[in-house]
Amino acid sequence: MNLKDFPRPDAKLIEAYRDVAQCYSASCVFADVQRRGGVMHSGMKPIFRAKAVGPAVTVKLSPGDLQDPLVALHVAKPGDVVVVDAGGETETSVFGGLMGSLFKNLGVQGAVIDGACRDTDELRDLGFVVFSRAVTARGTHTMFSGRKDDVQVNVPVQCGGIVVNAGDMIVADEIGVTVVPFADVESVLKLAREQADREEATRQRIKQGRTFEQLLEEFGRI
User: Fold this and answer.
1) Whole-angstrom distance, CA of residue 4 vs CA of residue 101
2) Residues near 7 by Cβ (< 8 Å), separated by ≥ 6?
3) Residues 47-102: tens digit of each pLDDT
4) Which of 16, 49, 116, 163 could bond 134 through an S-S bridge, CB–CB 3.0 to 4.6 Å?
5) Helix, coil or strand: residue 38
6) Sign of dihedral through CA atoms 6, 67, 160, 13?
7) Cβ 73 vs Cβ 98: under 8 Å
């Protein structure tokens, strides 16, 4: 088991991401300004309507020997998003309600799982959102074996077809999950704010009755 902390974006920068992500279709905005990049597979969906925006804490599980990602509790901090590489396994849940309670107590924003979760009723009542490929009643063997040592934390993982490193920014909503690499967080934020503002201005022009041609003349796109 590899436990290590990692550099996170500046706290003010994280808050700025959350501010911009209050716009409509935040995952789309942050994808568009990365030239459609950083978007996880379309099967990655939330168990209820919610957003999760924050730096990634990454967890890599062993395919065929999935264990609970509880070790992330040792490194997760308030505002983080836990990103779990469960190898895309959809028939074994690696995350449930009691685990969600523990992460919520730490102030974690939510979890993104390339795999499955369960206890969606409890997680919904907790207000702890999980984005996953599937939901299933079948849990890991950890509850019987007690094993939770074959887990790596804060290493590069693949989640939803995207490589995610600890400290990358996650912007997840009901539409999908977009990843912004740590090295690009400042430049992408600037572009995302500009696009969100431009889209809101476009909405207002539409309400005023502007035509398609007028919108193209003013904004260059729809």
Assistant:
1) 23
2) 167, 182
3) 999 999 999 999 999 987 888 899 999 999 999 999 999 999 999 999 999 999 99
4) 116
5) coil
6) negative
7) no
> What's the CA gap between 134 and 18, in Å, rounded?
26
Task: Yes or no: say if 77 and 103 are a contact pair by the CB < 8 Å rule.
Answer: no
Strand partners, 163: 158
Whole-number pLDDT of residue 222:
80
Closest CA to 75 of 87, 98, 58, 61: 58
133: closest CA among 95, 171, 179?
A: 95
Summarize the confidence of residues 187-194 as an average pLDDT. Answer: 98
pLDDT, tens digit, 9 for 90 and up, residues 123-165 = 999 999 999 999 999 999 777 766 656 789 999 999 999 999 9
From residue 153, alpha-carbon distances to 2, 72, 85, 101, 192 in Å are 6, 7, 10, 20, 29
CB 51 within 8 A of CB 170: no
- Please tell me the distance from the alpha carbon of residue 130 to that of residue 142, in angstroms, as a whole number: 20
Query: How many whole angstroms separate alpha carbon 210 and alpha carbon 154?
Result: 49
pTM, two decimals, is: 0.94
**DSSP-assigned beta bridge partners for residue 57:** 82
Q: What is the pLDDT of residue 22?
A: 98
Residue appearing with tokens 């999935």: 66
Q: State whether residue 70 is helix, strand or coil.
A: helix
**What is the DSSP secondary structure assignment for residue 2, as one 8-state letter?**
B
Cα distances from 58 to residues 112, 166, 175, 220, in angstroms, run: 10, 5, 22, 39
